[in-house]
Amino acid sequence: MNLLPSEIKRETLVKSEDTTDEKFGKRPAERTIQEYMQKGVINLDKPAGPTSHEVTSWVKKILELEKAGHSGTLDPNVTGLLPIMLGEATKAVDALLTAGKEYVCLMKLHTEVPERMIKSVLAEFTGEIYQKPSLKSAVKRETRTRTIYYMELLEIEDKSVLFKVGCEAGTYIRKLCHDMGLALGTGAHMQELRRTKSGPFREDDTMITLHDLKDAYIEWKENNNEEPIRKAILPMEAGLSHLPKLVIRDSAVDAISHGAGLAAPGVLTVESGIERGDPVAVFTQKGEAVSFGLAKMKSVEILKAATGIVATTDRVLLEPGTYPKGWKAKE
Question: Which residues constitute the signal peptide according to the record (predicted)?
Fold first, then answer.
């Protein structure tokens, strides 16, 4: 089965057990609607036409928020999945930018070729490839490597080829089509593109349009009905669910909230498969996102460690003081 890295199943390994104090913190679903929106993420279905920046600006206006940020730009004519982090959740945008993506692409060949040749070139371009961004690109035009996790041929009609591609963030699908056309000896260009996956987000019943979002917000403002807006917006923790998870003790939360690295004694559970240098997310026992950073140990090492820093704290997501102080500053 074709999988993005975020779809690999991980086992939760219990290092030790603890209990959580109900007086501190709050489960994501229990946040007030104002808190919920300030720590929310939208799995938005971007229409063709506007830029990703314009769509994000419209979301801010609809929800009357000061801050919102999208994770992974889509060109104006590209449609599909555009995760948008709201309010304080914009701190977590970086965790999504590097996540794997999936697209459905309609490629136009300049000359008809046999199906076997198309299948062959899709296989040839699966794995590590070299790409140089196009002249229209906003980034520096340097050759770089990108990983194509899978390509699946969906349909062929004359010179039109519909295929699905799962790829590393930063892969240029337009350039991929051009390069495959060169390999076929016919020439080719991207005709249409839709993003169907981005990290933990999928084309499913959580995906909404701008019109859906506007209707849900009006229903809350005018009728005090929170249900539609809570369905339209997901907790920001959903935007971190593709990262391996570490759950920590209540007594360790405040230190992490102040930017400290995560020490081994604070860890309760760890997910399997973590390697040194992997991005990881840190959660409270109530399911609140505390931070994300990089693992300093493997999963098995974290399980056995009694001392030492097991993960860096690169971005803090939980406000200091949410949990009681369980640490002492050096004098």
Answer: none
